[in-house]
Amino acid sequence: MKSLLFALITLFSLTLNAATINAIKYEGMVHISEAVANHLLTFKSGEDFDAKKIDEAIKTFYRQGYFNDIWVTEEYGTITFHFKEKAIISKVEMKGWKEDDADIKKNLLQIKKGSLYDTKRIDAAKARIIEALNQEGKIDTVVEVETEHLDSGSVAITFIVNEGENIIIEKLEYSGVEGVDPELFDEMIANKEHEFMGWFWGQNDGKMKLNELQYDPLRVRDIYMQYGYLDAKIDEPFVRVDFDHYTSQMSYQVTEGEVYRVSNIIISQETDVISDRRLQETIQLELNQPFNIKTFRDDSERVKTKIADLGYAFVQVVPDLRKDEKAKTVDVVYRIKPGKKVWIRNVIIAGNNRTLDRIVRRELYLGPGDLFNLTDLKDSRNALGRTGYFESQTVEEKRVDEQTIDLIVKTKEAPTGNIQLGGGYGSYGGLLVSVGISDRNIWGTGINMGLNLENSQLTKNYSFNVSNSRLNDSDFSGNFSLYYSDIEYNDYAVETTGVSVGTGHRFTRNLTGYLGYGYSKVKYDDLTNLVDNNGDDLTIYDDRIFQSYDKSSITVSLTWDSTDDYYLPREGVAASQSFEIAGHGLLGAEARFWKSRTTFNIYQGLEDLIGMDVIARYKARFFYAEDKGFLPLNERFFMGGIRSVRGYESYSLPVVMINGQDFRTGAKQTFSNNIELSFPLVPKAKMRLTTFLDWGWIPGESGELSDGSQWAFDDVSRGGYGLGLEWFSPVGPVQLVFAKPLNEAKDDKTSFFEFTIGQRF
């Protein structure tokens, strides 16, 4: 307060020249009303002047935090408080670090547009930024603040962040480690030793993370406890930092102790609600084997689930360990407090502005009046995720009393329908013009309907389909489709017109069956490219290869799906087995064969293991066909492309040499599998990065052409690897793939880039 001394002098003179306060006025005060200001005063008009009270009033106003300066004047018994208020902040920016991160601005700066300019708050924000970067392992960070006074009287402030340097851990040592492989620690700890080419994916960059340093000893100890070392002691790391080069060396002192074995497993129920024998069956710890803390925790959850499935929603399982330090054994104790049985009072659904309530309720395995069941609750969450109607969904338990809860189903709907008018460029087919109208959840009824008209340089696809996964909310499904396609392959074109109809049934929560019928007409065209090195027509070698045909077939299939989401599952298995039988008197069609298609996909999220939302996937497909009179070329299997082995053109394998010319023959058997890791790239944009490794195999085949000559191809073994971009775009899931082939042969047709829209990742 620059005017405090001035105010005291003025007040002193007032006490000499006046005795009574006639009026009190305020000038320049905006953020405090006159009524509030009068309330803050300890005196009022009509009272005698009191220098101490006026001095206290100035201090009281100043403490409100709105003013840079306050002074008092007096004229003919009227006291006027003059205020110079702090400027309003009209703009807040940050440059050099996290410039577009709204959460950082909110949590670290804690300064909003419209706030008062306060140097103390500015300094506190600078300190928080520096501390956040220190926790990331960056030291010597400098934060400067630029303040611009605007014509409006407000100010714009900019935090300019000059990031410090990362401390790189050049050497990490463990002393006293004998019974456990130190490489296991690297899987758990956050601060790791720098490796060669540490910038490359999969290598340790060695950057120190100060905020994780205190937890690393606990992580190391947890590894020891997975091998039975219950007395293991890991001291805080000793860190030596070279501030000139921003490098460090770290060392841990470890006292391992001895391995403890499980001597007894005790189940103690406060109230007997289930036999101890049934609980023992869920426990995977074994007597006389080394104790494992991870299995111990998992066993606790399994015991809890077993009891919660009987209706005890509030069950508590308190695990305990009784160590015998002399014998180096441990008794494992599970103390169980089941509480009372709990029933569902009501199921409340929120967030489904479009999807009908009944569509949500039919996927739930718990309803009003039901006894609580923890497995049913988890399965309900997964069932909602598999519909693909929701971007996110949760089922929360709201306790009403000791024996009653409400289930709160919170959903955030995903875009399930779109209208597409436009064009593009496809990785297989070239320039593309398409008109598409589709909705997987039309009018929120769960009905899937689509109309697609698509033309490109190499493909024409027209189709209409409608399906309902739960006819009349039952366990039966139905579908109907009409389609026409004209696809130009490398050496010929195929025109197909068809119709299909089918029905399915859900046998269990995860197992469904399907029975369908399809009829199609297939015509080969554009065979002029099929010439050998001498210019002779290759079609003369076997007339039936390109014989147009009708196909009448029945398909039966079983599908198992325990995944937790339709587009981006993080757990579960999706597997299917289908058989297609064509011909054999079905409407007199020429094609006669049967096919088997087997698929197996498994998904596992790794966040609990590594602390990052990484998803591991394994996908495998095995297709087999048997010729029962006429297996047309178009019905054989081909490999290559985004759904089998990436890095090769779609449908490009296998090929056979006929009179010096490569010829796509297809195969009766194909097997392909993929290993993928999906990482969060830009979470706010729902964008992920995928690495993959593919491998496929086609067993060799041979045959005889109509002219008596032989054809054959050897075993085909191909692989591919690369990166993919997975993005939940406004028009649906988009996948961009950049691949490199492995084990390619001389004349293979390879492909570097492919993409899909609307497919499951």
- The CATH architecture of the largest domain is Beta Barrel
Strand order of the largest sheet: 19-20-21-22-23-24-25-26-27-28-29-32-33-36-37-38
- In total, how many beta strands? 38
> What is the helix tally?
13
Q: Are there runs of 5+ residues with pLDDT below 50, and where? A: 1-9, 11-18, 421-427, 538-543
> Percent of residues in helical segments?
10-25%
Estimated structural class: alpha+beta
Radius of gyration: 37 Å
Strand content: 35-45%
Q: Judging from the principal axes of the Cα atoms, what is the shape? A: globular
CATH topology of the largest domain: Porin
Q: Superfamily at the CATH H level of the largest domain?
A: membrane protein fhac: a member of the omp85/tpsb transporter family
What top-tier CATH class of the largest domain fits best? Answer: Mainly Beta
Indicate the mean pLDDT.
84
Number of domains: 6
Q: Terminal Cα separation, in Å?
A: 64 Å
Largest sheet: 16 strands, antiparallel
Q: Keywords for this structure?
A:
761 residues, Ubiquitin-like (UB roll), four-stranded mixed beta sheet
What does this protein look like?
With 761 residues, the protein is an alpha+beta fold. It has six domains: 82 residues, membrane protein fhac (Ubiquitin-like (UB roll)), CATH 3.10.20; 74 residues, Ubiquitin-like (UB roll) (Roll), CATH 3.10.20; 89 residues, membrane protein fhac (Ubiquitin-like (UB roll)); 77 residues, Roll (Ubiquitin-like (UB roll)), CATH 3.10.20; 71 residues, membrane protein fhac (Ubiquitin-like (UB roll), Roll), CATH 3.10.20; 298 residues, membrane protein fhac: a member of the omp85/tpsb transporter family (Porin, Beta Barrel), CATH 2.40.160.50. The protein contains 13 helices and 38 strands. Strands 19-20-21-22-23-24-25-26-27-28-29-32-33-36-37-38 form a 16-stranded antiparallel beta sheet, with no helix packed on it. Strands 9, 10, 11 and 12 form a four-stranded mixed beta sheet that branches. Helix 1 packs antiparallel against helix 3.
